[in-house]
Every structure is written in structure tokens, then in C-alpha cells.
User: Fold Dihydropteridine reductase from Lederbergia ruris.
Amino acid sequence: MQIYWTKINKIIDETPEVKTYLVDRPEGLTWEEGAHIHLALEGFNAGDKPNRSLIRHMSISTLPYENLIGITTRIREQCSEFKAILRTLEVGNKVAIFKIHSNVPLKREDKNVYLLSSGVGLATFRPLVLDYFERADNVNQIHSLNIDSSKNFLFTDIFSSASDKKFTSQFVDNRKDYYEEVKKLAADKDGLFYIVGSDEFLKQNIEVLREQGIKPEQIMLDKHERQLPEFLSFDLSI
Assistant:
């Protein structure tokens, strides 16, 4: 396993609680849309065993052509040791990155794609939308639905409806409206549904989609293949 030590190039305050850390892309390092990476802070490998409290599995919110690796995360007042340290870092500080993998690349199967996310989960979908804008081949259209109770919606420069690109974006700030919209989207019985958020959020969305007749193979999760049965293999209680 190769560990890359790289520097923070820029820090963007997206909202009062959300920051994007843009780190220099090591030469030759590349990834697919929908990828995640392990981000580690200095000292994580100082002992005999890695200090796991200084390592986090994070989505990459950029594409390789942007030449920076973007990590977008919410840092609340009360937070973990990892995020408390991350909050103190500045441009020029070093971080380690390793193990890049994509669970949710954009499927090009001549279908409608629906991106369902909660809060900063939208960061996982930013590269998918950018990739679609660059090359719309074999994707009918994309619709993004995001719920964020803070009402500080992210990436509104990109997640803005554009009829010429066959892209629509929707933000809601409460669960009732969100799940009503999910039910409406599930009227498309042939669509592909991508979901990013907490495990609870994933399970709630899957339950709603399955109740509307959406099949497990139409549901894409940002989870390793071995974890998928835990979320997608269950019988609907009818």
C-alpha cells in the first residue's frame, strides 16, 4: 500500500459547519467519479500500529482534471478527535492519503439517474455530475435530491437545474418533503437510484424505494461489495 504525504493547498468554508480541504494531487494519482480515499493526519503511523483515530474514510469531491483532491466534511462544535485536529490545520500542513476506490461510478445504461443524498453526502455526487456535464453519453438525464435541515445547501453553483444539460437539482430541508419526493421519483420503474448518507438514511431510502417497486439492482450505494447484502437483501413486509 502506497501512502502519499501531500500538502493542503486551499481550505474553503462552504457553510458555517462545512469545510472543503483541497490537497495537492500527487503526480500520476488518478481516480474515478464517486471515489473515496483514506485521509490520515500526522502521527497516525508513528507507533507499532496505525492510530485509527487519526484516519478517516472520506469521499473525494473533485475529479482528477481539477488537479486537487477535495475532501468536504461537516465539523460541528462537538466533534471527534480527528475532526478537532483537522479544524486546526492550515494551508501548507501535511496530510496522508491512501487507498482510493470507487463504489459508485456513473452507470451509462441509457437510463434516468437519481442522486439521493443527505447533507455533505452531496460531495460524493459532485464528481458524478461534473463527469456527466463533460460527457452525457448513455445517460438520459440526472435528477439530484438533497436534504439538509441546516438549509445551508452545498455546491449550488453546480447543483443548479440546467434544462439544456438535462439536469435537475432539488433541495429540501425536512424529511416529510424529502420522502414524498423520493416516492415521486420512484414512479420511474427503470431508473437508477444512487444513495449517499448515514446507514440509517440509506436504509430508510431503500425501504421507500423497495415499497415503490424499485429492485435492489437499481439501487447504488457507496458501500463495499461485501457490505451490500446488509442493506439490499431483505424481504419487504407486505
User: Anything to note?
Assistant: The mean pLDDT is 93.
